[in-house]
Every structure is written in C-alpha cells, then in structure tokens.
C-alpha cells in the first residue's frame, strides 16, 4: 500500500493506492499419446472374411515437450474521490516457449493428418483496465458505472526451427499472430460500368497476405446501473464490446459457392464489393476467400435487467420480509459491421484452436421473469 | 473394548496409506496400458503376428483408398467426378467443384485421397520390412506389398498433375519428398512391379503374379509402350480379377454408399457433350436404375441415376483379365492390326464373356441379369483411326467403370492420341450453373505445401 508510506504525498482526492508486481510460470502438458508413434487395430475384408489388421495411426513426435509459459505482471489499484471511483490497471507480458500446436503433415507422408509440435515462442502482452465508479449517490437516485477492458497483442516470436505451417485460410508464421487469417487479396473495378462485376474485372494478388487476428484484440465490458424511485427500482445494463479481429464468414461463403443463393450472386443490385467476393471465390483460379474474412467487431447489449421492490404489505401476504420482481433479458441488441447473421454464431474447433463461423446458430435472446421472495 | 478399537483404526489407516504411497512409487501402478494403441515395441514383440497384421493393414488401406472412404471421398469416386463417370448430386462444394472441373488445390477433399494412396505405400513399405524380418514365408505376401506400391504409384501418375512428391517416414520424422513427374511415377510403378515379381512363392502367388502383370501392363500403357504392355499381360487369363473387398465391419463400398444410398453422386450420362452414355446405353456392364427419388441436392431436382453393379458389401475389381485383353487390343490397334484388335474386344463379349459381366444387385436394375453383349463390328479405318480409337476407349470405359481407369484414359487420349481437352472432357454449361472449368487431372492438395520441397504442380500437362 504505497499510499500509506511516509514519503507518499497526501491528496484529498486519493483514498489509497496499491502497487503490485508478480512473476510466474506455468506449463501445459501434451496429451498422453501425443508424443507416441503408434499403430491401431482395425478390420479388413480379405478373401470374403473380416480379418484383424494393424494400421499406422499416429506419427508422434519424440521431441515433443511441455509448453512452458513465463509471465510478468505489473499493476496497481487506486481508490479515489471518497471511495466513489476504483481503478485497477495491469500490464502483462507472457512468453510461451515450446507452444503446442497441431501441425498439418504433408499428405505425401501417408501419415496422420496432423501432429503436435512445439513452436519456439509465442508472446502475449497487453493491458487490463478496470474502472468502477459510483457517479451519483443520492437518497432517491443512484448511478454506477463500470468499465473493464483488455487489450492483447499476440505473435509468434520464434518458430523454433519449424517451417511455417500452411493451412487453407490460416498460417503460423514468425512475427504474426497464432492462427492469423491469410488469403490472397484482390482488387476490383467495374470497368464497363454496368454495375456487374465479372472475373475479368478482378485482379488477384499472386500470394496470400495476412488479413488479421482471429481473436479479439480489445475486449471491453461496460456495466451501468440506475437506482430510481427512492431506489426501489434498479435498472442494470451490461454491454460486451469486442474488436480488432476477423472471422471467416463460412456460412455466407458456402451460400455463394455451393447453395447459390447469396445476395452477391443472385442480386444484380448487390453492392459491387459483395459481388466481387463471390466472383473472386467462384470464378478466379485462386478461389480466394479474402472477401469472406470479415471484421467481426461488435457491441452487444448482453444483459438488461429491471428489478422493482414490491410494497412490504405484499410481502407480508406471503409471510415474507421482502418481495421484488425482476424482468431480465439477454442478448437483446447488437451493432456490428459483420455481414452475416451474427459474429458470435461460431464454434471452437478444438483440434486447430480456430474459431469458425459456419452454419451455426447465434446466441439466443432470452427473457426471464422472476419473483424474488425473501424470508 | 470400544476404546481399543478406536485406537487400532487410525493405526491401520496410517499403515494402509503408507502401503499405497509405497505402491505408487512402482511403475506398475502408474503405468496404464491403452488398449486402443499399439506401440512400436509391442508390435516388434509380437513378431510374425505383427508383420501379418501390417500386411493385412495395407490391404485395409488399399480398400479405403480406392472406394472405402467418404468426406473426403476415395479416389475411385472422387476422381470419377472429374471424368464423365459420376456427377455431383450433392450440396457439398468439394464435390461440386470437382464435378465442374474447377482446378482448386484448396478443395478440402483433395488431401484425403492423396493421403490415403500414400498410406497404402507407406504401410506396405512397413509391412515389407516386418515380413522380411519376422515372417518371410510365404514370400508372396511381400510380393503383394510391392504390387500395392506399384499399383498406387500408377494411380497417382494417372490422376495427379506432374510434380507429385512421395515423402517417407523415419521414426517420427517426415522425410519430405521431391516433386516427381507422372512419367517418373510410372517408372517407379514398374520398378516396384519388378520387386513384386521377385518376391513370389506360396499359395497365393499365381494371383499376385497376375496382379503384378496387369499393373505392369497398365504402367507401360501409360508410358506409351504399347507392345511391351501387351506382352506384360499376355499370360493373364480372362477370368482373373484382383478385388478390394468391403463389409459392414471394415467399411462400406462407397460407390454404393455415395450413389445408391446417399444420392450424393449420380451416374453420368453423356455429361457435358463429350461424356459417354453410361446410363442410357443400358449396357449389361453397367446395370442402372433412374429414380424415382431425386438427387440429394434439392435445389436441382433431377432424378438420381443409380448403378447396380455394387451393393454395400460388394467387391470392386481393381485389376482383371478384362483389362489385360483391353491392353492387348489397344496395342494391336496401335500397331495397325485391326483384326486382332476386334478379336480381342469380342473375346470379352457375347456368350464367351457372359461370366465376366456383373450381376445386378437386384431385379430393379436394367438390363436384367443374363443380358449379353453383342459382338462389335469394325467401324472401319479412318484418319487417324478416330472411330476405332473412340470405340476402344468406350469399351475400356464400360468394362472398367468406376475403377479408377477413366481419368488416366482421358489424359491418354490427349497425350497419346492427340485429342484436345474439348474433345475428351465434359464441356459447356454445368448443370447447376456456370460452365465447366479446365481441370484435366487432380491437383496435389494444398496441404502438401507443408512439404518444404513442394510449391505447386510442375505443370498441368495431360
């Protein structure tokens, strides 16, 4: 508690201040069989009978090591303005050595699809900020506000001698984030001015370029609460804000590529950019998905609740000491540049660690009506 | 008495805990056997049985690679989409783009068949080493493994672009392969056929020897060595066939599963102008049935055309005496001997060849069992023998439908007979919209870019 030290100045607006620092280490073990080269039993039909067989199943990796992370954390907390504002700030820098990652194996090896390997080092660094304020505190009315924000930078610092790992839409390359999106970019121009983009009006780059992060760089939660009517009524709202990342709009891609019912394909009045991404995907030799890797930022009203304390006499009718009624909603509103149904309509692909958006349902909107009885 | 018991319990408990702690220090308690995996050392310890298991495993891998997997699909069906044999009745973009002849190395179904062919090769190599060490008799088992390697190399040379790497495994390391041309791949297939022929002996040796002869003839034909190809298969009897087999336990025949069962594939019928009329011909070599239900993709309502050659557990002939006669016929035609050519073709037809025809899986397919093929008549000489060549390749297509021969034949029509892509492959509008693309072979899959020696196909020549 640095504010209690004699050398620290005394300010009326500062109630207390604490500084902290920490250093820590942790590890992640590979799976129990990830390092092993092994075979599996099976059954083959041979000479009209089912026979037991042994097939090569996993290449393994005798050099596989546990993932080790070392993290330094520096931060502080402060309480200000007669304890009406709390601030909390943390900087972290985490270096993960021998990061475990599923490497795609060349099919010509005739082995498993992938195996775990250790990347040299992955760095995660960023800041976390929490501000919690009691803005208004009167007998009849109150207003509190809280902002919790985190900013993250993630990149592969060293591949540890492992060549770049090339996936269809993601890559692992030194200097770029884990599972970063990569694709061949294109430019387009409606040269004949007819409002329809055709393949000869698109120029695709020769090689894939980095599109962006697969995970949010900023994650912010805003919470605000209002106490009204002599504090008998409380209104609480929680907003989720995530930004600085991209996702592959797999649902729209397959509608354009296979189902043939997306707007960019069937509507001649669709915006040129929307037409271009379909043409680049379907009609250029690159089959590039660049146009479908979209900014997935969003602000969402995650929760909204209203609670009203009912009269005491109503509570006494139930032999209770307190009675209140709550109406709460979840996932009520969102704002996003994402062109699909919902940037959170995704699933986590466990094998690769990549979040995908592909024909998955968005988080549902839920309404809850609750009677709270206290005895 | 009660106080005495109370004192003894904690002592017993402490002793028990101590015993457990000591026991935990031994390997036995901590070492857990996983019954689902077989480690290298376990396999070596089982010696002859392990070697036989690997040999049988290579047979399973061959069954899977040819027609035993879906999503990604096995080579016979997926490669058949690119030809006129099959059309996509599916919503899956991977099957649609292959059917539309779109050149797309990033098609996520590409890696499966390529990996599976290499799995046959790699496991066969492992089986050869194990058989030589632990079970050298009968030698034919070793010969069979070499024959499998030869066979899949011929398939790779026929189906994929020039620049196909073959990587190897050393322990847990991948030894990345260098790109290989199609012709070199056929050369490797011939070398492995030689190794196979040098490792025969035992009860099954005649069958394996004939397999080797047909594969050798096939690879020689691919190289344009027609007379040598005919000589290689001369001793193969008409009724020989080497099969990949399927069962509910080992895996379904996907030519049935994807077509007759799931309706994601539908039988080709004069696809894209140049395609052969596999359905409408009502040929006893390809009994078939139209509808009444529709293909899986409801956005394009057309009746599904089912083949009636194979059911769920039917075997598929990957090499046969039929192929041997067809190789001889083509060699004769190439040498200008139209009489021998026609004789060889008709040797397989009519009453004499009745036993070579498939028996339809049920009575709903047409033509019904027992329908015979009429003898062919010579269409006559033309320059440059267009009609005879056309008939030759039609006979090959119908006799060996769905067995991984057609794509190699279409490429040979361009490479060896001077046909153009527009004369051989499906062209014009594709039935689900857009036009056919320009793929004439399968690309090496994008995943191969994880091989530092590989960038892309050397070329896309036929």
Short description:
The complex is a heterodimer of chains A (375) and B (462). Chain A has 375 residues and is mainly β.
Number of separate domains of chain B: 1
| Chain-averaged pLDDT of chain A | 93
Main sheet strand line-up of chain B: 2-6
**How much strand content do the residues of chain A show?**
over 45%
**Biggest β-sheet: strands ordered side by side in the sheet of chain A:** 1-4-5-6-7-14-15-18-19-22
Work out the number of β strands of chain A: 22
> What integer is the average pLDDT of chain B?
93
- The CATH class assignment of chain B is Mainly Alpha
Rg for CA atoms of chain A: 28 Å
Q: What's the Cα radius of gyration of chain B?
A: 26 Å
Q: In DSSP terms, counting alpha (H) and pi (I) runs of 4 or more, how many helices of chain B?
A: 17
**Outline of chain B:** globular
Question: Could you explain how this protein is built, in words?
Answer:
The complex is a heterodimer of chains A (375) and B (462). By secondary structure, chain A is mainly beta. Chain A has one domain. Chain A has helices at residues 250-259, 263-266, 272-283, 312-317; strands at 14-28, 38-46, 49-58, 67-80, 85-104, 114-137, 142-158, 165-166, 170-172, 180-183, 186-188, 202-204, 209-212, 218-228, 233-243, 246-248, 293-295, 298-309, 322-335, 347-349, 354-356, 366-374. The two termini of chain A are 41 Å apart. The model of chain A has no long low-confidence stretch (mean pLDDT 93). Chain B has helices spanning 2-24, 27-30, 40-45, 47-67, 75-82, 93-99, 111-134, 139-159, 182-197, 205-222, 226-233, 254-261, 321-334, 338-347, 386-399, 406-415, 421-424; strands spanning 38-39, 86-88, 168-170, 173-175, 241-244, 265-267, 288-294, 303-307, 316-320. The longest helix of chain B has 24 residues, at 111-134. In chain B, strand 3 (168-170) and strand 4 (173-175) form a beta hairpin. Helices cover 47% and strands 8% of the residues of chain B. Chain B is built from 17 helices and 9 strands. In chain B, the strands form 4 sheets. A two-stranded antiparallel ribbon of chain B has the order 2-6. A two-stranded antiparallel sheet of chain B has the order 3-4. A two-stranded antiparallel ribbon of chain B has the order 5-9. In chain B, helix 4 (47-67) packs antiparallel against helix 7 (111-134), helix 9 (182-197) packs antiparallel against helix 10 and helix 13 (321-334) runs antiparallel to helix 15 (386-399). Chains A and B meet through strand 2, strand 3, strand 8 and helix 1 of A and strand 1, helix 4 and helix 7 of B. Strand 2 (38-46) of chain A pairs antiparallel with strand 1 (38-39) of chain B, so a sheet runs across the interface.
């Amino acid at each position: 508690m640095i504010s209690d030290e004699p050398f620290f100045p005394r300010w009326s607006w500062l109630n207390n201040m604490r500084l902290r620092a920490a250093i820590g280490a942790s590890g992640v073990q590979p799976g129990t069989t990830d390092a092993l080269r092994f075979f599996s039993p099976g059954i083959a039909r041979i000479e009209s009978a089912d026979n037991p067989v042994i097939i090569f199943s996993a290449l393994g990796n005798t050099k596989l090591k546990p993932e080790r992370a070392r993290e330094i954390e520096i931060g502080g907390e402060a309480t200000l303005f007669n304890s009406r504002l709390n601030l909390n700030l943390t900087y972290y820098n985490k270096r993960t050595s021998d990061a475990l990652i599923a490497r795609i194996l060349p099919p010509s090896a005739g082995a498993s699809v992938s195996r775990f390997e250790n990347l040299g080092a992955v760095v995660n660094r960023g800041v976390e900020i929490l501000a919690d304020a009691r803005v208004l505190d009167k007998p009849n009315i109150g207003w509190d506000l809280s902002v919790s924000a985190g900013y993250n930078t993630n990149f592969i610092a060293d591949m540890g001698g492992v060549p770049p790992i090339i996936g269809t839409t993601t890559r692992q390359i030194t200097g770029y984030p884990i599972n970063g999106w990569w694709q061949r970019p294109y430019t387009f121009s409606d040269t004949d001015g007819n409002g329809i983009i055709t393949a000869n009006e698109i120029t695709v780059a020769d090689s894939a370029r980095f599109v962006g992060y697969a995970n949010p760089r900023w994650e912010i939660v805003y919470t605000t609460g209002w106490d009204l009517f002599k504090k008998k009524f409380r209104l609480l709202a929680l907003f989720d804000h995530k930004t600085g990342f991209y996702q592959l709009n797999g649902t729209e891609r397959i509608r354009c590529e296979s189902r043939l019912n997306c707007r960019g394909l069937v509507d001649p009045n669709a915006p040129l950019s929307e037409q271009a991404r379909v043409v680049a995907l379907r009609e250029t030799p690159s089959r590039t998905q660049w146009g479908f890797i979209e900014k997935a930022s969003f602000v969402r009203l995650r929760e909204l609740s209203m609670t009203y304390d009912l009269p005491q006499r109503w509570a006494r009718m139930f032999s209770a000491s307190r009675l209140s009624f709550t109406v709460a909603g979840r996932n009520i509103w969102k704002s996003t540049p994402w062109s699909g149904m919902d940037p959170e309509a995704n699933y986590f692909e466990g094998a690769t660690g990549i979040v995908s958006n592909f024909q998955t349902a968005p988080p549902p909107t839920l309404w809850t009506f609750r009677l709270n009885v206290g005895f | 008495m009660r106080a005495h018991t109370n004192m003894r319990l904690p002592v017993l408990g402490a002793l028990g805990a101590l015993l457990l702690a000591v026991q935990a220090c031994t390997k036995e308690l901590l070492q857990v056997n996983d019954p689902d995996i077989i480690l290298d050392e376990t396999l070596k310890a089982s010696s002859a049985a392990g070697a036989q298991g690997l040999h049988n495993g290579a047979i399973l891998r061959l069954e899977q690679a040819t027609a035993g997997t879906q999503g990604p699909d096995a080579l016979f069906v997926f490669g058949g989409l690119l030809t006129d044999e099959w059309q996509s009745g599916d919503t899956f973009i991977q099957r649609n783009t292959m059917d539309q002849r779109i050149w797309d190395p990033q098609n996520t179904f590409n890696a499966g068949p390529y990996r599976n062919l290499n799995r046959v090769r790699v496991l066969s190599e492992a089986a050869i080493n194990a058989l030589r060490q632990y079970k050298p008799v009968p030698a034919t088992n070793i010969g069979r493994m070499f024959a499998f390697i030869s066979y899949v190399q011929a398939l790779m040379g026929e189906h994929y672009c020039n620049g196909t790497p073959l990587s190897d495994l050393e322990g847990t390391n991948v030894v990345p392969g260098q790109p290989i041309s199609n012709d070199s791949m056929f050369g490797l297939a011939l070398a492995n056929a030689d190794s196979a022929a040098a490792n025969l002996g035992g009860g099954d040796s005649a069958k394996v020897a004939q397999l080797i002869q047909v594969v050798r003839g096939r690879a020689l034909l691919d190289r344009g060595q027609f007379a040598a190809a005919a000589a290689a298969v001369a001793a193969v009897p008409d009724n020989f066939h080497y099969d990949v087999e399927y069962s509910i336990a080992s895996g379904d025949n996907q030519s049935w599963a994807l077509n007759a069962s799931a309706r994601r594939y539908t039988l080709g019928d004069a696809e894209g102008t140049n395609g052969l009329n596999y359905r409408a011909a009502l040929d006893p070599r390809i009994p078939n049935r139209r509808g009444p239900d529709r293909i899986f993709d409801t956005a394009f309502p057309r009746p599904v055309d089912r083949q009636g050659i194979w059911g769920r557990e039917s075997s598929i002939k990957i090499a046969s005496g039929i192929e041997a006669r067809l190789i001889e016929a083509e060699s004769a035609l190439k040498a200008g001997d139209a009489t021998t050519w026609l004789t060889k073709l008709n040797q397989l037809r009519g009453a004499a060849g009745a036993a070579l025809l498939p028996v339809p899986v049920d009575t709903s397919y047409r033509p019904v069992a027992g329908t015979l093929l009429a003898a062919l008549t010579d269409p006559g000489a033309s320059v440059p023998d267009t009609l005879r060549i056309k008939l030759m390749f039609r006979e090959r297509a119908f006799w060996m439908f769905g067995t991984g021969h057609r794509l190699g034949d279409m490429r040979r029509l361009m490479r060896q007979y001077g046909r153009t892509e527009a004369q051989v492959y499906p062209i014009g509008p594709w039935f689900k919209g857009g036009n056919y693309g320009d793929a004439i072979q399968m690309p090496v899959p994008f995943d191969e870019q994880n091989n530092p020696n590989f960038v892309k196909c050397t070329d896309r020549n036929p």
